[in-house]
Specification:
- By secondary structure, the protein is mainly α.
- It has two domains: about 5-65, Orthogonal Bundle (434 Repressor (Amino-terminal Domain)), CATH 1.10.260.40; about 75-110, no CATH class.
- The protein has seven helices and no strands.
- It is elongated and about 65 Å long.
- The protein starts with a helix and ends with a helix.
- Keywords: DNA-binding.
Length: about 110
């Protein structure tokens, strides 16, 4: 069973879905495709992965095995990561560059 397959099966069972119901959600004609996914004989296409992630409210990274954290990233977390990156970049600026950046930001906000 592939990592994707085992996670799909685990999520399906956690949500008390039959393979047939999950096939309907994914737009498959029969449950055979879900069986193949769970057995690791087939992987869902990108649209299928997005449908699964949205339906089960998990991240794509979790579905494909890149993360063990099923929670999708929050906008707040993404914003904090961006702020941390900007802070790191600002720390590399010279005094003159920092002054120019301040003027730019202030003009942008007017």
């Amino acid at each position: 069973m592939s990592n994707i397959g085992s996670r799909v099966k685990k999520l399906r069972e956690k949500h008390s879905l039959t393979q047939k119901k999950l096939a309907e959600i994914l737009g498959y004609k029969t449950d055979r495709a879900v069986q193949y996914i769970e057995q690791g004989k087939r992987n869902p296409d990108f649209e299928g992965l997005m449908t699964l992630a949205n339906y089960f409210n998990v991240s794509l990274d979790y579905l494909v095995g890149r993360s063990d954290n099923p929670s999708p990233p929050s906008v707040e977390m993404e914003n904090q990561t961006e702020l941390d990156r900007l802070h790191s970049l600002i720390g590399k600026l010279s005094t003159k560059q920092l002054h120019s950046m301040n003027l730019f930001i202030e003009s942008f906000l007017e």
